[in-house]
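Chapter summary example: a protein plus nicotinamide-adenine-dinucleotide.
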Amino acid sequence: MSLSKPNASAATATKKGSISLNNKELNSFEMAQTQLDTAAKMLHLEPGIHAILREPMRELHVSIPVRMDNGKIKVFKGFRVQHNNARGPCKGGIRFHPDETIDTIKALAAWMTWKCAVVDIPFGGSKGGVICNPREMSSSEVERLSRGYIDAVWEFIGPDVDIPAPDVYTNSQVMAWMMDEYSKLKGCYSPAVITGKPLALGGSAGRNDATSRGGLFTIIEAAKHLNIDLSTATVAVQGCGNVGSNLAILINSISGSKIVAISDSKGGIYNEHGLDPNKVLQHKVETGSVINYLGSENISNNELLQLDVDILCPAALENQITQVNASKIRARIVAELANGPTTPEADEVLHDNGVFVIPDFLCNAGGVTVSYFEWVQNTYNYYWEEQEIHQKLNKKMSKAFHNVLSESLKRKVNMRIVAYIVAVSRVAEAMKWRGWV
Ligand code: NAD
């Protein structure tokens, strides 16, 4: 996530996970702190609140011994970071990744605090991770690691304390093992400890496409604001994974918009008359990529970003719209489904050029919102139909979008800065009422 700041003119993306700001290379957590500092300044935030929010409340480092299939013990490093719980229990995913770092986890935990606050769900922010490569491990090794992680952190999490979820290289099966391990340790079935579970174990209907559907609800509201008719609008989607493919299918089937381009890591495809996203997805399943789809023209990812479309949806990686290509972005709306697709400097260029950006932690908050619905259903032990989830998600996302939009129009600052201002002020208000400062 990036926060455009008035003096961020020397910000550029450097190596993965870090950014250079005014010639100083910042890691993800330092970047998150800089973003908070900017919002704090604009809000005239009390120094005590600012100081508390600059650091996570709790940072847990664990060593997880796992017996591998060869009979030997391997010890994995794991983390759980709880950034802030003023507004409710912490919420955040667990990543299994070989390049995991504590700084990334700390930054992501802080961003979860802001994401939950901007959509007004009663959670704080957290994140967890284990340094490992699940693609080189057998399923039973991953299961033992998942259970080992819970054995190490279970006293620090819980339905009213901190609720994990899937993230990079963790999935509903991992969540099921973790929920089972936690339930054994507690001596009772505890589905509300974790979200993103399979439906058979208290998972929520509508979770699979929640991030894309939530993003679509914000696009619909942005289009109304800008008088764009979505039924005739053209859309380019970067990324054809969970988020990008579902977004393409939903915006095409619900709003009637034309998908003129879509890409994956191998490249993109373009057809000015429109692509059928379901058929493109089928082609990707069969061939491993969207490229060479019949009746389309192969294009590069960079060409896709610069297409003359109404809506551009970066739904792949961070740092895709940079100072190099920002001035060439021709879309009227950039809907940031991915985390951090726009660098701070590019953000300023887009703003100056009148491109309407729906900032990432608002645009892609549909996933955590349905995770919240999952937790509510687990706590009630009563489950909603998928249609009801969609309606509730629409209400939450549209309301959050309009809160940010009206504040942005009032303050005459861009949507991203305002999203931070809304989020930070909500957390600060809760801290004050609780008497923390
Ligand atoms: P995914 O792994 O399912 O898909 C990623 C897609 O990006 C793949 O199609 C991959 O081929 C493509 N890709 C990789 N490198 C690329 C490149 N250089 N150029 C173009 N495309 C490239 O991931 P996902 O779950 O769809 O997540 C996508 C983004 O959305 C990430 O930034 C993620 O953090 C963010 N996000 C996801 C969720 C969620 O619920 N899945 C929630 C919030 C945010």
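Key point: The pocket of nicotinamide-adenine-dinucleotide is lined by residues 211, 238-244, 263-265, 301, 315-317, 337-339, 364, 367 (CB under 6 Å).
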